Amino acid sequence: xxxxRKTQVLLVDSQASKLMExxxxxxxxxxxxxxxxxxxxxxxxEALALFRTKRIDLAILELDISxxxxxxxxxxxxxxxxxxxxxxxxxxxxKLLRHIKREYPQTRAIILASYGMCGDKIEDERANALxxxxxxxxxxxxxxxxxxxxxxxxxxxxxxR
Length: 161
What we know:
161 residues, alpha/beta, Rossmann fold
C-alpha cells in the first residue's frame, strides 16, 4: 500500500539527535512502500508542541529522559519536572504517554526503558507500560533493527485497522 503522505514518527529521547536520521533511513529501506519523516527532541515541551502542529502517527518515548551536565541540561531537567503537572506519574515517558493517548488516541506509542532503570524487573515494567497504553516496549540499549521492527509492527497495525 502506498500512502499519500509521509508517516510521521516522533522520537522523544535523550539521544534523539543521534537516532533520528539512522531510524528514518532504515525505515525507508526496510519498508519502502511508505515514506517516513522522523522528528526528534529530548524536550517534552517541544514534543507537545509538535503534537499540536503535526499529525503524529507514532511516538517513541524514553521512559526517563536523562539530562546531566551543563546549565542548559539542568534547565531542561527542571522543565521536565514541570511538564504536564496534572498527570500524576513518576516518569516523564508515562506522563507523555497518558497525555498522548488522551488527546491523540489514534497515535501509537512505544516506550523505551533502560536496562539500568528496570534491573531484574523488565517484564514487570513491560507489563506496566502496556497497561498504561503503550503499544510497544523496547529495552535500552537496543539494536536499531529491533526498533525498526517494532516501529514497522506498530505502523502496520495503525494502517490496517
